Here is the input.
Amino acid sequence: MRDFETVVGLEVHVELKTESKIFCSCPTAFGGAPNAHICEVCAGLPGALPRLNRKVVDHAVMTALALNCEVTRESRFDRKNYFYPDLPKGYQISQLYAPIGRDGYVDIEYPDKKDGTSMLKKRIRIHELHMEDDAGKLVHDPIKNITKIDFSRCGVPLLEIVTEPDFRSEEEVVAFLEQLRIMLRFLGVSDCKMQEGSLRADVNLSVRPIGQTSLGNRTEMKNLASFRAVAKAIGYEAARQWAVVSESGRIPRETRRWDEEKEMSFPMRKKEDASEYKYFPEPDLPAIRITDEKIEEVRKQIPELPSDKRRRYIEQLRLPAYDAGILTSQKPLAVLFERTAELCGDPKEASNWIMGEFMKILNDHGNSGEDFDLRPDSLGEIILLLQKGRISRASAKALLLSAYEDGSIPEKEAEKRDLWLIGDKEVLRPIVKKVLEDNPKALSEYRSGKLKNKQFLLGQAMRETKGKADPSILEGVLQEYLESE
Ligand code: ADP
Ligand code: MG
Ligand code: ZN
Here is the structure.
């Protein structure tokens, strides 16, 4: 039995997927030679003036709406001043006083640890959403024992999503982050690749005795590079704090670094107060006015969100929750599923093919389903051919593989490989007749009661057609002969 409660609030940074940076026209592309993508604005040369990228505002408004936030009609930027080698301007352009979005929420759903099947639901409140520019990257060279700076990331647009301290366990935090990631990808505002740093979560955590209503002192943990690290770090830090608190010690307000290898957190620096950043309104950028028309325009562009899709798949298409969860975990899978179900008219069959054979193909190709090239009609066309008895199951699988690997059109590929099944009784009759003539013993045994010989005869006939007979029609023809003479 735990005698304490863990309280967590998140600050999530998301790199926006725009062509150019937030305040200049340098490209945002990840990778490339160090310092390849910089100019006087993002490199912070004196006198250079920022200009706001409209696309960033559109993405921010769309995200604010999807997070059920109030969109701020007159949003402003502020300067957050601090000195650090990766920040050439000496300040970050962020939003303190009038962030673009406020007071939202996300409803999370996650499996109950106790029974493993039922789902727990919870509303996580969003305190605010704001826009800011990213800093550069320090690259440590342990061999030469020097640190190099890559400024190419300076000015990449970021959204920071700040939650209320509503989480009580690592399961809730991970469920939130997973759901947020899927949602932002569906919106198309970010790739959310944790390994490339385009989704980064800072964990604010405190502990308190069960029953206490006021919050304990918190620490903030940075450098969490995966969901697994987030879960581990929360477990570790909560236990560490409780050990201190239950010895009647005090938790100092500090920023801690999570060490992924040691699986421990270490103090990094004393937590700054907002006043230490000497925030002031950014003088080089005007306020952003967002009209009702603009909000409506953006709202119309919001695609059906994964949580709504999931519900629709379960309630209207009658899919099991498990299938619906997987099919809505990646946008391309959902697109493929919807088109396939529409073409073949059988959602469960479409789901079975995607969750079975198609996932296997993806897996064999080391593809996680985030991005693949299959033409969305392909699978539906294949299932239709199968339903009409024109191809075998094995051929259907081969056609799917070919469509995935080479983009082949199933119908043409079946033609090319001569995969059509023989469903014409007139063609099958002489074949069956010949098999019966060639196997008089099996036939007479069948007639005197050895019924399992039918299976043998069917196999022989199938072999005669080189496996190309429609099995049910072939069996029908054989049955006719067995019953007649
Ligand atoms: P600051 O301005 O010092 O960064 P904020 O009020 O902006 O602090 O909160 C930052 C994050 O810390 C938010 O996600 C919030 O939910 C979380 N937080 C605040 N107080 C606590 C606490 N006592 N325990 C856990 N998380 C907290
Ligand atoms: Mg803060
Ligand atoms: Zn630039």
About this structure: The mean pLDDT is 91. Residues 304-416 form one domain. Residues 370 and 389 are 33 Å apart (CA to CA). The chain has three domains: 4-293, 304-416, 425-483.
